[in-house]
Specification:
- By secondary structure, this protein is an alpha/beta fold.
- Helix content is 33%, strand content 19%.
- It has ten helices and 13 strands.
- The strands form two sheets. An eight-stranded mixed beta sheet has the order 8-9-7-10-6-11-12-13, sandwiched between helices.
- The protein is elongated and about 75 Å long.
Length: 304
Amino acid sequence: MRRLEDLPVCVELPGALGEEVAAFVEGEAGWQVVGDSGPLTPVLTMAASLRPGVATVVVTDGAAGQAAVREALLGGALDVVAWPEERTRLLEAPLRIRAAAAAGNAPAVCRVAGAGGGAGTSTIALTIAALAGWAGRRALVVGGDDLLALAGLSPWQGPGAGELAVLDAAAAAAEVAGLALPVPAVDGLRVLGGGGLVRDVAGWPADLVVVDQRAPTSLQHADMVVARPDGCLRAAAGALGKVLVNGEGPLDAGGMRRALGRSPAGRLPASGRVARAGVLGRVPSGLPGSWVAQLRAVMESGPR
């Protein structure tokens, strides 16, 4: 598991103050000082003023006035540290992040499962998350190496979702930002590898977490069940979530109703462009707009 000493952090302080703080956190804490647009997302930012929506420690050059400290803390700053007198308090910042995460709201979760292998759950999961990203929301999709390959990413290395699942909620939330990777060409969309095992997402830095469960032994907890139009639909008959039929198969509309016991929430046609995007590692950015629009309509429809 990534140690606290390895946390990626951002230092947004001017001149000599910024250089001194960066040298301190790298030398004393072992943190990685990174930019705010690089491959690693900073878990913590040290800045001269509060950064809205970002875990911030306000660092002042010398003692700060009581009014300034009060304003920063009421605004959501994790701490206000006078440099250099109070520099050792910077080392406690990860604990403050964990406490804030524990008290934070949990993002929405959408669990996507397949009624049999090869149903296309990874493509569906990535696209559901992308719909949130395209709408300006922060989305995180969790899955295995097959899902990563569809998005053009290399196999996962190091700790991932499986390791986070054994931590308490606050500890897991503190790790996610430093582990998740951006998905190319979709702002706001990130991916966490290591499998589709997710428990508590309280405090995770996302508005929506989409979990690719592939083909689990039980479909009872899935929010979206993906199935081919064939005999595997029978496995989805007792599912509580929406059932989406994906691709071509031997069953017509009547056959699907009989196998499922009801009409599916929607059906996505087989598409050479969808298959090509997967082979080229360009999901979701390379998917045809008409196919994406049909999935959006299913997501926006009422419960089935």
